[in-house]
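Thread: Newbie trying to understand structure tokens

Hi all, I'm a second-year student working on a class project, and my supervisor (Dr. K.) asked me to get a predicted structure for one chain before our next meeting. I've only ever worked with sequences, so writing a 3D structure as a token string is new to me. If someone could post the tokens and maybe explain what I'm looking at, I'd be very grateful. Here's the chain:
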Amino acid sequence: MKDDSKNINITPNEFKKMSSEEKILRFASDLIPPAGKPEDEVLDSLLNKIEQSSRTKTFKLKRFVQAAAAVVILLLSIYSVNSYLSNKTVKTQFAEQTKVTLPDGTEVTLNADSKIIWNSRHFAKKRLLTLNGEAYFNVKKGDEFIIKTKLGKVEILGTQLNVFSRNNTFWVSCISGKVRVTANNEQQIILPGDIAQLTPNGLIKTSKNNIEQTTSWKQGVFYFEDVPLISIFAEIERQFNVSIEYEKLEKRLITVSFSNKKLSETLDIVCIPMGLNYEVDNNQQVRIFKKQE
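---
Reply by user tm_fold:
Sure, no problem. This is what the structure looks like when written as tokens:
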């Protein structure tokens, strides 16, 4: 009768630490090899079978993972293409403003050289759009409405507001309702009469007595308080579809209001108080220069 005590007395931890060869030798030590074959040859044969079985399983698993990954990539590609094809874009050119009604009834007025993008397929479930430029929003009450820009995010429920996001300038004015503005990991809650503006010192909230002036561009009237003169020229370029050349005016600030009805009148209003002259050629090129002493 065989003595199995040496095998039965192995603890689970000891068994885990044993190599494949040790396990086979331990539990097959009492077996008699086939006639004419030495023990080491039988052991090699067993080990080869174990290794082949392991390789086969690993190969099958690898092929399965690759196939699953290919399916995921394909589904993501189809989703991305469908989402892209469902995107709606409205863009204005220089000297152009336009009104848009979104699927939920929200009314958007785009200023010149501005663009909004939204997904018509998903807008009913998630009211989200992207803005580059300036737009006035009369948001229909309902679920959360999100406006994303390059510099910050605006979240509202039902309100009237103006959003400006161009280059490195970002500000939001609240006409009615309640707005949450996020930029550079900072947040501000603004109410009617408030403006949230991104400055070198962070996202700052201020109050303005005549908050409606921030949306007067819809009627063709523009108000600016202590802004760089070059920002005024950039707005004139957008409103009149002209190109303006100037030198060494980057540090000058101005408070001014003008309309987009007549270019020469606007240039007079801006340039004369600043001691500047201008010339306009037939190709709508404007040259700004200092008055001669």
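A couple of things are worth pointing out once you decode it. Helices lie at 5-8, 12-17, 20-27, 39-86, 229-240, 263-271. Residues 1-8, 27-32 have pLDDT under 50 and may be disordered. Feel free to ask follow-ups in this thread.
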